[in-house]
């Protein structure tokens, strides 16, 4: 059960409108690694935790915080859109800077949402449930979360560099800081889980059931041997169970696949290998 | 430039057809973390590397390997679909086990692909470019790759447990082993990058530009304090620059957002706050 | 800013597992009119309200309530999936009822989410931002909301009829009741807005700018005159400004469209109307 | 069975080309509430009507009319694209107004469709079947239709305000008028159905099966009591069966959800609540 | 402008209900090559024709015919869904054949559309505007049309083989025959265009601007020389302008790509090629 | 199994950066007929061939070549994005040409991919598995391939005309030439298959099972008789089995569809045809 308070956790006021930046900022709302993604990802993970109340509580804390991030960004987008060039009058003026703004702004910000934020990214793709992951395996999912906060902070930093508006930068400096914390926090949780259950996801699958002879080898499928010099091609493996090795000319172990004909009622092309043409 | 040899790297032959398992196995081909995703993700990352030839070579090695994984799985799916119940004749039999198979198999495996693999997941969603990430920041992307190999191995293990077919298990035991290696390998590359540039992504953004006062705090937005006991709420942060802390009752720093009216030519609802109702 | 309490607003416990029903229940989570849609729709509308604090408060109340509905349904889905037939062992048994369950359950519930809810509908389509609407015009949007609660209640009722599980029915009886309230509530808000500003959306566009001569006419484009007998073809219009009328044989007012050739550098097919063939 | 006449129902000729407006106008063709949506929505509803020939006829009349609306808009888009700046020569000129037009136009209008309309919205998202609704319940669906015509008219009005082209405005003034009629018409049909079967959708579900004690209550989940003053929180309900009421501090009735562990063969994280960390 | 008559062009009545077949038949309505695709594809092509009234007329004839095909299939789907097992009562029976039907039918046919057709394919993916093509080049588009009718007839034939219902087969035998005609018809139109303008699309691009030295060569990028024996590797080319040839060991003409570093404000990974690790 | 060499098959270096052209060029990477589509289409077709090794080899040759095309275009996009205007500093300059470039470039090229290529088209839609076709019937699929190469060459030619950059034109002149070859090559393969098995897809369905009386007729569903003059309305059919004919006033053979009421537990609208209103 959730509740809401009217105040924003942090202020979300630009110094001046900027419809082009509003378009770009949508990436942080409805993009692959925007706040809709992290909010929904942490909530779905939290709701699906089986046992492990400490992690469940953590996920619901952060997931709930992220809904408030969408709120701040949506407010910022609305304000950046104040005064957007939406009337024919202004177009008539033919000022090239205004023309560029009109050509560059997201037309749905005017036509569809009436100067409000959209549940979409910076090019207008709608947010999708397929952006998020909740697998039931916490180590796997926390790695996904660390990635999301890494990509998210990178994108927020890029947007920070693209703006000179003090109010915009103030909000982004908060979001960047929270992404710093969340990178730290998921890394701490990952370290704890790796210590408890080991490095590999999932840790519960008996190793002898996999082909261990191919489990520590870098295959060189790309001409050039630069990658052979890396840490991943020699020395002890990260999981501590073997030595990395390197195969410069991988061999095919399987046969050439030859498939049987399909049954006639599917009307696939029949084999014509022996038909004279 | 790429080239192809006809032999499969590893064998891909089930002991017997199983159209229901063919449907499930599609998750490893065209799912969010299937082989199409890792192949395309590593290739796009590799093609976008600027400098850093060692990592570029590594990415192209692994990306090229993964195309061969799609090939093995596509071959396996074709063979699992041999003998699928696709004619009216068989339906007439009304054998409940066959009826269940007919009801449960993916109808597009018969109608659309003629018993071939589909570029789609286990419920039929087409693979999408939005599954992959290539950001230009290698530490961010290698965390994404570690996650992809974690989710991928988890899914392969679950499918291994759902089958009793020796041929299917043989192929999965290879894919699971390769996912083991790739988890190890990306972790090694991540360790190298974190040592060279620090833990946070991106490492090049001046820390004083973010709100450092909120960069190490767990906010308790969810009733219940279980999460306060975690490593992420106390002690030194993972990045080594501060101490984690915990805020049990987060305060709102921002104001209640009040937005200006939209310009009349957008025909939004006008403010009626002072209109008697 | 949002906060969360651990207790569910209403209980979400089935009497017994039922993986097929878990698949169907996904429609209420991530379907076009599921709880993700209403939660996000009301929140985006609320965040975009300009002035009109009463409506903003209402939207945020209901939007926040709906996040809790996702939570209850996600919990229910997890419990319906307890004991789902996910191992090879059970498949071996070849019990036709179990076979039907295995063929009919959503394979991603096992392979991808590990018996947790998915942000997707009952056939596995991921939830999309394009399901929701927030236009800045409250009368338009409240009509959208009334529709969402009508479709939502209809779907919940259909699912109620498809289950004999007391716990499932208990939760659905709550959701159905809340949809009843929300239909009532949006209808009340619509009545208020229509009284204040008139029936047509948007009410602020000068009527003389539209082609009023075609603004009250039912055109008969479909052979058969049954529709001519309706209230919409005669008598005073709902907006109170004119009389409905009926046109049994609509005339074309425009010309046959003849388009100019495209410029040569687009390499469209050139006009060949005078070329002998 | 359908037939076509070559003349447009209304003229669709702009005074002059305008590729930026062509991009915006796509919203009315392939957007969420564009003409493809209403055409397909009314036709699918009409084809699915069981009994109720009057409504079936009405739906097929309007659905057929809307295909002609797509036709007029597609013709208009083709003409707005005449003379679009598509060659390198013009780019060389470096006229900033032309540069803005080239940067702002939809590149697929040149590269993909050769100056023809696209089945997509104003940012290029393809039209989707998931935009439409046909539920088998006419009252529900007519509310959806009223919403579609409200959103559609709002968008057409906004586009009217963004253009100074007489030919464009002429076509939009027709579409706006038809949306006026269709709002009136669906409202008339809704009134008829509500009178016949009652206000709630669906009307046939026995009310005693829902939790009537929570069917008339506004829950205050958002700090601030502005919404308590509304019509929806007091007085008789719209359905006429009860009194609205208001709950300022909603209580949780359910328990904290604690989920059972997943079966081992899914390799979810095991419960570690008692494992020392 | 379009009009509709109530009678179906051909009868659409199954002998008996079959909800599993209804699910499969959706492929012909809303699949990639279903009737929604061909209807929309021919109409958009027709509306975009510039000059060439003969082809415009042809496209609008066929596009209009195809809307009527959607209508017949939607009617068929509704009738196949009569009597679908949608109540809890029937589930209680635990008849394995009914259980298989319940597990195998499309749940949205009950929950969402109330036993009506959906604008979606046989696994539930919504129809998308990105399925269709209208390029402005008629030879290109007619080849697309020939393909659509080929895939469409193949799918209709497969469905014909999967049914033993006389009414279903009667409708499919009509659709198969129309696909036969349309394959013939587009082939006739293609032959006419190829004769008038040549084989290559587009025919208007000066051949000397392309790299003619690589325009007739089969590159052997796949180990094995079976393809070298084909007609496409020797003898005169289809366009009549050169001889096909075969290159068994293609050489790389380009250099190894080395990309410049990104500007610092994007926070990509910096080149570390000379940094000791 | 695949391998990679570092050199590009052909050079991919623009004379100078051009972020707007980078955006447009994405159509050839991740558009409906871009290189991702042809690569995946040919590989999936090749992996699914049953017998017919000559065609399997051909498909894998070309599919493998096309992965290298994605590589060249991705490299070109990265280089076109060098020096893109991504910092606030440049925006401050307010040079209208730069403003137009900033407004017109794809914001995800900066925010998401850090100046790398995206798996998306020129308006940002992600590439989708539903773009490709692999049906198991080679004649059908080769027609799809001929279409893909026709649309692809048309788009490449249009982009060639939009650029004055020598390096860009050099790469496009190669891609255009390869599309020329591939059109020739698929046409040769089609001719071979049509000679072996006949013109119609699929050729194995007994013709007497279709409604032959409607298999050679052009129906005139569109007012105007221009299309009656075409080759497709008279003379011998392309398949050589009958004469084309023309029906100027098609008759409906079916009845008006009247559907049965839905079962009460679906809560569709009940038939009200006899209820006084």
Automatic annotation (TrEMBL), chains A, B, C, D, E, F:
Q: Where does Mn(2+) 1 bind?
A: 35, 69, 149, 182
- Keyword Manganese assigned: yes
Q: How is the cofactor bound?
A: Binds 2 manganese ions per subunit.
> Which positions bind Mn(2+) 2?
66
| InterPro entries in alphabetical order | Ferritin-like, Ferritin-like_SF, Mn_catalase, Mn_catalase_C, Mn_catalase_dom
Q: Per UniProt, where does Ca(2+) bind?
A: 57, 61, 220, 222, 224
Gene3D superfamilies, alphabetized: 1.20.1260.10, manganese catalase, domain 2, chain A (3.30.1530.10)
Q: Molecular function (GO) terms listed?
A: metal ion binding
- What keywords were assigned to this record? Calcium, Manganese, Metal-binding
Region Disordered, residue ranges: 247-277
Per the entry, which co-factors are needed?
A: Mn(2+); Ca(2+)
Which Pfam families does UniProt cross-reference here?
A: Mn_catalase (PF05067)
Membership in a protein family: Belongs to the manganese catalase family.
| Full protein name | Manganese catalase
- Which species is the source of this protein? Peribacillus deserti
Organism lineage: Bacteria, Bacillati, Bacillota, Bacilli, Bacillales
């Amino acid at each position: 059960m959730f509740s809401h308070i009217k105040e924003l956790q942090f202020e979300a006021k630009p110094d001046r409108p900027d419809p082009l930046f509003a378009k770009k900022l949508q990436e942080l709302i409805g993009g692959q690694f925007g706040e809709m993604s992290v909010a929904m990802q942490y909530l779905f993970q939290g709701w699906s935790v089986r046992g492990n109340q400490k992690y469940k509580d953590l996920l619901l804390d952060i997931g709930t915080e992220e809904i408030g991030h969408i709120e701040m960004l949506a407010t910022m987008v609305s304000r950046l859109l104040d005064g957007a060039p939406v009337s024919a009058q202004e177009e008539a003026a033919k000022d090239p800077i205004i023309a560029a703004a009109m050509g560059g702004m997201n037309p749905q910000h005017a036509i569809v949402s009436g100067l409000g934020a959209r549940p979409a990214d910076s090019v207008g793709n709608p947010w999708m449930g397929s952006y998020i992951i909740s697998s039931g395996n916490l180590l796997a999912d926390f790695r996904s979360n660390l990635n999301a906060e890494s990509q998210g902070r990178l994108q927020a930093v890029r947007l920070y560099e693209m703006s000179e508006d003090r109010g915009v930068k103030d909000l982004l400096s908060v979001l960047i800081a929270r992404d710093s914390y969340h990178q730290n926090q998921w890394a701490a949780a990952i370290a704890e889980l790796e210590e408890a259950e080991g490095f590999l996801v999932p840790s519960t699958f008996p190793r002898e059931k996999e082909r261990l002879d191919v489990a520590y080898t870098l295959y060189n499928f790309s001409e050039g041997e630069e990658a052979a010099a890396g840490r991943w091609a020699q020395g002890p493996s990260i999981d501590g169970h073997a030595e990395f090795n390197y195969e410069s000319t991988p061999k095919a172990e399987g046969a050439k696949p030859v498939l049987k004909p399909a049954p006639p009622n599917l009307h696939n092309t029949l084999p014509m290998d022996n038909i004279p043409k």
